[in-house]
Structures are given as structure tokens and as C-alpha cells.
Write a structure and sequence with these properties.
The structure is a homodimer of 342-residue chains.
Chain A (H helix, E strand, L loop, with lengths): L6 H8 L3 H8 L6 H14 L5 H7 L5 E6 L5 H14 L5 E6 L4 H13 L4 E5 L5 H9 L4 E4 L7 E5 L1 H14 L4 E6 L5 H15 L6 E6 L4 H13 L4 E4 L2 H13 L9 E3 L6 H4 L6 E4 L1 H16 L7 E4 L1 E4 L22
Helix pairs in contact in A: 1-2, 1-3, 5-13, 8-9, 10-11
Chain A binds a DNA duplex (16 and 16 nucleotides) through helix 2 and helix 4.
Amino acid sequence: MDSKVTISDVAELAGVSKSTVSRYLNNGYISEEKQERVRQAIAATGFKSNFFAKRLKMKSSKLIGIVIPRMDSVAVGQLLSGMNRVFDPEGYQGIMLVSHLSMRRELEDMQSLMQQGVDGIIVDSVGISDRHVELAQRSSLPIMFTGQYHEGVSCVRIDDYKAGRMMGAYLRQMGHRHAVFAGVTETDKAVGIERRQGFYDTFLAGGDSKVDFIETGFDFLSAYQKADEALGLHPTVIVGATDNIGLGVLRYLHERGIKVPEEISVTGFGGYDVGAVVYPALTTIAFDYELMGMRAAQHMLDVLHGLDVEEELSVPLHFIARESVRDFTHAYVQEPPQALNL
Amino acid sequence: MDSKVTISDVAELAGVSKSTVSRYLNNGYISEEKQERVRQAIAATGFKSNFFAKRLKMKSSKLIGIVIPRMDSVAVGQLLSGMNRVFDPEGYQGIMLVSHLSMRRELEDMQSLMQQGVDGIIVDSVGISDRHVELAQRSSLPIMFTGQYHEGVSCVRIDDYKAGRMMGAYLRQMGHRHAVFAGVTETDKAVGIERRQGFYDTFLAGGDSKVDFIETGFDFLSAYQKADEALGLHPTVIVGATDNIGLGVLRYLHERGIKVPEEISVTGFGGYDVGAVVYPALTTIAFDYELMGMRAAQHMLDVLHGLDVEEELSVPLHFIARESVRDFTHAYVQEPPQALNL
DNA sequence: CTGTTAGCGCCTTCAG
DNA sequence: CTGAAGGCGCTAACAG
């Protein structure tokens, strides 16, 4: 089963011309009879059409370049899963490059993909810079971004600012007035800036409250290590910028024997399933990354098919109130653990 | 910056022949002077060599096909991350297809990849069937498998049987004599059969112990739902076939107010980080999926470079004793929670 | 409906 | 060291 069988071999064996075989492979327009002869010849030779030769002629490669910041993230996994869900039935395939959270690599990856003859590129960006915009606008092929937002380019966004606002409003409403926001650096615009700003804007709105900030990484180990520092500020609630951060904090509090939410409350962002299995289950705002992936992919397909589409899409947010936040507006009663709430 | 600039445009602008430009792009053999002219022409035109045209001529595509069972799994993420870590610096790229845990799709994906002109294929298989072996052996390009093991094909395996044995031995040694093994169906040979068999073989070795089996899915929701049934069997320990299963059980026990490990013990397999942040932290056996990915990728590269390599590789197991198992061999003392143990 | 004729963009002998 | 010529495998007009 060498891959040396070409369309000519098949043609010869079937006693027809190359074009006829080609027609058989693509559109119809062949007599039943020859169709059968070609079918047999193909079966006999084990012919496989050469992908590269085909793509050289045709405009479309059915390949979508995807650049992601890292591989080992639940969010990225879900995102890719969503994309795959819509690309796959349409016969499109993703070819992916990892930027390792580096903006420079991200740009390089985009360029590399452009040379690679993909039909379009989706970038799950860590931050859309002017270079990104320039590249996207100058490029002849469709490029879109997920996760982050920037004027002038197509993106499917999560409204991180709004998510921050939701959490701020909820916590205020529960009677909290002093929070520690445990977040990541500002290089991640969506998480580091918008999510945080949204939180500040509503939580601080009354003029009677206060937020302290502590910087951590994205993993829960680093959050775990910073938890003590956060605790030293004596807030009523520690707001993790991601679920992992909330989880790391929760673990630390457990080790210190500090009861959540009785003594202190904790929240996260993301809606990871694991937030539901820890105790207390983590109150969070869920992002539907899978849906985001589907939207991005569908949008890409629409553009490729020449449909008119809007530039900016956004996916809904789901607030998930679980057990990790204390309600100060009522006398506190120890509630029994609720059932699993994914 | 249209992608219409070809090698001829560059040649014309530089006042040389196409071949000279081609030489510039590949091996050397050009005078300093022309080299410079070509360089400038390329910069001026923004020329990008056409991937498909190039691959049509050359034998290697620098593309490795990767088929995975699903996208949204931590293990798969780590595996891919490991592969990427070795492929990337060598200029290789992965193009991946998802089988959605279906063996039929897995086979289809492999064939599809073969037509696609990839240099090699790595399959993170759900189970290596005779069809797999046949395909692999008949194929002209290197194919290797991860996660599962089968004679006659290259694989990087995790010794699931041994992992099962380790857990069985540990639990026996801790004085447990009645376990419930909460596992998945036998369609996943590694997890569903080998891991379980290994456990049975050592745990049951003394003739004085007993194991009951309960079937669950891979997600912790389904484990959570089956936990009650497991509990009804009154074991001293529930052994989850994966960490997710252990986690789901842990959550259920928490809701019922049943203390772990005081009243019952729980374990998992996999070594997911989240197992360390729940309380009690989950005792487990860690598989280094990232290393497995690296090994597989390196092996693939070696084969591609014509090096002699062994057919079968395996990655080490790490036993992680944490807090979720009770030691019956000593009088039980409530231990304070330990520090985070990843 | 089908064979013939041209390339797609690049690499690679082969003479110079 | 360099240009000309041929072809990788396939598709797409073009005449029949």
C-alpha cells in the first residue's frame, strides 16, 4: 500500500483519462459504466489522492490554523472541543500552534500559519496588540480572535468586564464590604484588567467598601502560596480571578482550619466542574468556552462561505451560586451541603 | 500582502532565475551578491513560499497526524503538551483529529491522516484492535500508539496493570480487606481491564479479602451518582479507576456527612492536580502524560530520522499517598491536614 | 459525457 | 556558481 499510486495509474488501469478519474473524485459527470471501472481500479490500486497536489490547485485547503496559549488548560480544551464540533462535520480540520502565553510567539505562529496555506486562523489570544490588528487587517485570509476583545478585528468575546460586575454586585448584595481580589498580571487583558475592573466598579460603587489586590499566577499552587498574604488583610471574601485561584485559596484555608464560608468567603471565575466537587463548592461565574469555540468556528465558516457577518460576538455568562459565600444579610445558619451543582 | 507572490516574482525582481531563489530558500550555493539581491526582493514582495507546492515536491511534510479520543481531558492536554514540546523545536507540527472515544472513528481518522500526507501518526487510542495493527503494519509511514499496549506495533505505554497492582498492594498493606472498585467499561482496555485486573491480583492475593465492582463513566458526575450504590456494599475503601471517579465519590460522601478517611477510604488513579486541593487530598497513582507525549514524539522523530529504536516504551508511575486512605494497622489518630502535595 | 491541454508553485537534475 | 527545462499529482477549461 505504497502511496505511489497516482491518478494516472488509476486512469490507465481503468482505461480512461486522468480527468475522468478526477471527475469521479469530485463532481459527477461520468457514465455509470466508467464510474464502475474507476471504482474498481481505485480499489485495486489502493489509490489515495495526494493532499498536497490537490491543495496546490484548489484555493481552499480546508485547514484552519488555530493558535492557543497553552495545551494543558481545561478552558482551552473546551474551546477546541467546541471548534471541532462545528468544523468536523464540514470537513474542516484544525492545525494548531501553541504560543506558550507569549505574545511574540503568538504573532509568529499566526505568520507561520499564513504561509502554511490555511483557509483561516483563529487565535485564542493572550492579548490583542496593535501588531495583531495590523496583521489581521493586512492579511488576505480571515482571522478571528477568541477570549479577548479589540476594535477593528473579529472576535468572539467573553464579557469579562460584565462578569466582574456580576461578581461585585453579588458580593455587595450578600453584605460583603471588604474583598481581596487575587488576580493575575495585566498582560492578560481580559482576566488581568477587565474582569478585575468590572469587579471594582460595582463592589466599590457604594463608597462604603474596599478592595485589596494580590497578584498570583494562573495555577492554584501559586494562589495557595499567596493565600496567607490575602488572609493577613482580613477581608470577608477572597475573590479569585479564576477558579484555580479560588481552589488554591480554599485548600489553604482548609489546612489552616479556617471555615468557609463561616469565617471567610471565597469565589472564582470560570465555572470549572471541579469547583463543584470541592467543599464548600465554589461560587463562580461560568464561561461557556465550548460555546465560544463553536461560535468562533461557525463565524469562520460563514466568512469563508462569503456570508455577511457581524464583527463581534459574545457568549453568555452564567452565575453559579454555590456554597462558598456567606450571606451577611441574614443571621448566619449553617446550611447542610447541597447536592452536586455543576 | 496577497499570497500571490511566487518564487518567479521574486526572481524577476531580483534579476535572477527561479532556481537561484529556490537555492536561496533551501541549501546555500549562491554568491553573496545575489544572496543579498534575493533577500531584498523577498522583503519587498513579502513573499511566502507556498507550503503545498513545496510539499508536493518534497517527501517530508513535517506534519504529524495525531488522533486523540477527546479534547476536553486533562490527560490529553498534558499528552499533547508533551508532544508539542519535542515536535516544536524540530519544526514539526501536529495536525489532530478527535475520535470521540469511538474505535471506528479512530480508524477512519488514521486513514484520513494517511491520505493527508503526514509524515507519521500518533494515536492516543481507546483500544488497539486487530484492524489497528493491520493498518499500522500495512502503512508505509510510521504509526505509534500511546496509552494502550498491543503486540506488533510501537507504543508508549503506561503500565496500567502495574498501577493497579501498586494500589492493591498499598491498600492491603494499610489493612483494607474489602474494596469496591468503581471503574469504567471494558471498551477501554487499559483502564477498564488492565488497571482493574492489576488491582484484583494483588488485593485479592491473600485469599482473605474481597472486591466488588461498580461501573461508572469517566466523569465525576456519574461516579457521584453511583457512590451510594458503592456505599451500600459497605467496603472499607472505594477505589476509583480514575481521579475523577474518586473525586465524585468524595463529594458524595461529603454531602452525606461521611468522614474520609475515618469512616471510609477513597483512592484514584491519574495524579490530577485537583486531587491535591480537595480535602481530604486524594491518594492516587500519578501518570506522567506529558512525559508520555514527549517519549512518543521523540520516538516518532527517531523513526523518521531512520534511527534504530525499540518497539515498546513505558513511562514511570508515581504513587502519591495523600490523606484519603485510612491506616488500619495502627490505632487511628486524626491527623492534621498536610501541606499541599501535588 | 470524455479526452486533451495547460498549468498551480516549487525543487532538481543538467548543462553551462 | 547559475539558468533552463522538466515534472511532482491534480484540476479545470477547452474542444470534441
